[in-house]
Amino acid sequence: MSKRANCFMPACGLDGKLCPDCASASPTWVVDALRQEMNRQAEEHRCMVENLAVALSAARSERDAALARLNSPELVSFRDGVVLEAAHQRLRWSAEHDAGKTAPDWFWLVGYLAGKALHAHLSGNTEKALHHTISTAAALANWHAAILGTFKEMRPGLSEEATRGVDCGS
Question: Domain spans of the chain?
Answer without folding.
Answer: 1-70, 75-162
